[in-house]
Design a protein that fits this description.
Oligomer: heterodimer
Strand order of the largest sheet of chain A: 2-3-1-4-5-7
Strand content of chain A: 5-15%
Radius of gyration of chain A: 28 Å
Shape of chain A: elongated
Strand order of the largest sheet of chain B: 1-6-2-3-4-5
Radius of gyration of chain B: 11 Å
Number of helices of chain A: 29
CATH class of chain B: Mainly Beta
CATH superfamily of chain B: Ferrous iron transport protein A (FeoA)
Helix content of chain A: 55-70%
CATH architecture of chain B: Roll
Largest sheet of chain B: 6 strands, antiparallel
Number of strands of chain B: 6
Number of domains of chain A: 3
Chain lengths: 636, 78
């Protein structure tokens, strides 16, 4: 049995999904974090159920890639059951999607999530009445607390067996008349796009001027376009508005009417949101809080990291000197063992101490719902680089990892915005690069120097953004973004999310680290690294770095943090400051921060923006890195 | 009663949507968020110079860029 979760952005689909799947889909409190579908299998009454978490979509008319993915999945795949998840506190608006889903005539269960939030807002819903009007079961749940989820799936399972199709609510008489005339003509012409789409649904899509459907019509039934235009014109003439507006107003009216008949409004409790937003979104205090929050965040990472890094590194030193006493340091065996230990040490002592507090803090900010507020505050500035506020979400995620950041550009409407945001996102120091900035610059030079790198990075991104938007002078469509209510993050979910993101490091990067580290020992032992360093010598000479740094740059393309750890090994010490000057450390770090993104990023860039654009991004960042690092060499 | 564009409404005012100028994309997008001709909007915050505005509609908060707000024609409701 295949069950799909469908609903508007930020209504809690992924939270419900994770209840069944364990923490597999990243949840956050901002609209549009699920950009591709996730699936899981579980047993329900002895039967294997495939559960699919689809990206949120406001309607079945799609605008961005994430929404298109959700809609097409539903059209293409054979789904036995749709669970339509609604944010109960936004019932009126959410019902519009429900009405469209009912037009698809699929077995369906309605899930009223965040029913507690609705009650706080003074919205009491008559569940039985809603269920009888729509002709489908309705279940109230509180997904964050896990309440009602079992009942939801039991209901979904039983409903899938009965296969009731729900009721389609009717529009005004004149519109229904046109829908039925168009439907008859569609039937006579055998117009079909996906074989199982009901004819009424198809007729509505044409009247709504849905781009995807119209394009298909032009391609496959060019003669029929005239008829569609004819009916659109009839509506436009009688109603005085474009037919898409008429259809959506009709649907809006139906859902509002439905909403009013099933809801009793009482006085809302004073909300935390208004009070908090008065400060956090204030034209002055909003920016001050933003600065303070990120400054505090920066200090937290450094504070935790430093306290843990020092004693752990000491421990590993002692371990190596202990081994040195029992095994001859000139043997191959020693080279390999010390390589492995260096790799282990790099992960435990240098990367994890900074990675954990960072990901933990990011998860809290995400779940709280702060990110959309940042988008609001920074919209003005993003317009200066030719983008709009929503682009800040991929950027902030980019501080975690570039791969999801580039995926998140799917929430942007225009292809040009997606391209610019993707290129700029690759320049944002991800958590891997963050560990380099903290463990090298903050640790050996000063926290202020590390902060300076972040500021320099922002300036470079702004300038690059301006350049890119000059090259592609298209006007950004402008921001339309929901600002969700705040949620108090649950420690369990925050830890689960942090763990999900750390797994990537522990299971992919760390083994690579240990492997790379022992490989470098081998190269070193057989003196092959000299050749690599010789090839890279024009670059290292230009940047004024020790020649042994050359090899480490290759490793950096695999994973950014590898560069630093390989640096330790290439230099033969983690006490970098003894062999490299602060200027060299700074130059090295700046080069690493900006040069060619890691392989995982290149792969996702290739998929999202295409090969040509990816090559452009690679060349752009590489040239930029050389320029900036050279400047650093001579000025710092 | 005269009509103005949404971006020039002062903070705290309640307005009624008269019309939405703009292409199919913007119309549909706004309609999905519950903004149609006839709906009541409260302007919660009007960001700094040319910043976005924050509105409340049907109990939900939405940030709209200036450019978008300029395309929404409204009239003040007493």
């Amino acid at each position: 049995m295949k069950i799909a979760l469908m609903g508007q952005p930020n209504c809690g689909k992924s939270t419900i999904f994770n209840h069944v799947a364990g923490y597999k889909a990243v949840t956050s409190n901002f609209p549009g974090k699920t950009v591709k579908y996730t699936q899981t299998k579980f047993k329900l009454f002895g039967e294997t159920v495939e559960l699919i978490d689809l990206p949120g979509t406001y309607s079945l008319t799609s605008f961005d890639l994430a929404e298109l993915e959700a809609r097409n999945y539903l059209f293409r795949e054979k789904v036995d059951m749709v669970i339509n998840v609604l944010d109960a506190s936004l019932l009126g608006r959410s019902l519009e999607l429900t009405l469209q889903l009912l037009e698809l005539k699929l077995p369906m269960v309605l899930c009223l999530n965040m029913i507690d939030e609705a009650e706080r807002k003074g919205i009491r819903i008559n569940i039985e009445k809603l269920s009888s009007i729509l002709g489908i079961p309705v279940v109230a749940v509180i997904a964050l607390k896990g309440k009602g989820i079992e009942k939801l799936f039991t209901q979904a399972y039983n409903t899938a067996k009965d296969k009731p199709r729900g009721k389609t609510l009717s529009f005004s008489k004149d519109i229904e008349e046109i829908i039925s005339q168009l439907s008859t003509e569609l039937k006579n012409e055998n117009v079909e796009i996906y074989p199982k789409l009901p004819i009424r649904f198809l007729a509505l899509k044409y009247l709504e001027e849905d781009k995807f459907f119209i394009e298909d019509l032009i391609k496959n039934y060019p003669d029929f376009l005239k008829r569609v235009k004819y009916f659109q014109n009839v509506i436009q003439e009688t109603r005085g508005r474009p037919s898409d507006v008429v259809i959506s107003s009709e649907r809006h009216y139906l859902s509002m009417h439905l909403y009013e008949s099933v809801v009793v409004i009482t006085d809302p409790q004073t909300s935390l949101r208004d009070n908090l937003d008065n400060i956090l979104m204030h034209p002055l205090f909003g920016y001050i809080s933003l600065g303070l929050i990120f400054y505090f965040f920066f200090n937290l990472i450094f504070g935790v990291g430093k306290v843990v890094e020092e004693p752990l590194l000491d421990y590993f030193y002692r371990l190596i000197s202990l081994i040195e006493k029992s095994i001859n340091p000139d043997t191959l065996l020693f080279s390999i063992i010390s390589g492995i230990i260096q790799g282990l040490a790099g992960g435990v002592a240098i990367v994890l101490p900074y990675l954990f507090p960072f990901l933990f803090g990011l998860a809290i900010l995400e779940d709280l719902g702060y990110l959309p507020r940042v988008a609001f505050l920074l919209d003005v500035f993003l317009h200066k680089i030719g983008l709009h506020g929503k682009a800040i979400i991929p950027f902030i995620l980019g501080y975690g990892c570039t791969v999801p950041a580039i995926m998140a550009t799917r929430i942007l409407e225009s292809e040009r915005d997606r391209f610019i945001t993707s290129v700029l996102a690759t320049m944002i120091p991800c958590a891997a690069r963050m560990t380099i900035i903290f463990a090298l610059v903050a640790f050996y030079i000063s926290p202020k120097a590390a902060l300076a790198i972040y500021i320099l990075n922002l300036i470079v991104i702004i300038i690059s953004g301006r350049i890119l938007s000059r090259i592609l002078p298209e006007i950004t469509p402008g921001m339309i973004l929901e600002i969700p209510a705040y949620h108090i993050p649950s420690l369990k979910v925050v830890l689960a999310k942090t763990w999900l993101r750390m797994k990537e490091f522990i299971f992919v990067a760390w083994p690579l680290l240990i492997l790379g580290s022992s490989l470098l020992s081998l190269l070193n032992y057989y003196q092959i690294d000299d050749l690599v360093n010789y090839i890279f010598s024009p670059l290292t000479r230009l940047l004024g770095l020790p020649l042994v740094v050359g090899t480490t740059l290759i490793f950096g393309v695999l994973r950014k943090e590898l560069s630093m750890l390989m640096l330790f090994q290439a230099l033969g010490t983690t006490e970098v400051i003894k062999v490299m000057s602060p200027t060299q450390i700074m130059t090295f770090t700046i080069f690493i921060v900006f040069y060619i993104p890691c392989v995982a990023t290149i792969a996702v860039l290739w998929r999202e923006i295409g090969g040509k654009m990816t090559l452009f991004a690679l060349a752009f960042t590489f040239i930029l890195a050389i320029m900036l690092a050279t400047i650093t060499r001579f000025t710092y | 009663m005269f009509s103005i564009s949404l971006d020039s409404v002062k903070e705290g005012k309640v307005v009624k949507v008269l019309d939405i100028y703009g292409g199919w994309g913007i119309r549909q997008r706004l309609s999905c968020l519950g903004i149609h001709p006839g709906d009541l909007i409260t302007v919660k915050k009007s960001g700094i110079i040319h910043g976005p505005i924050l509105i409340s509609i049907h109990g939900n908060h939405i940030a709209l860029g200036r450019g978008i707000a300029r395309k929404i024609l409204v009239e003040e409701v007493e």
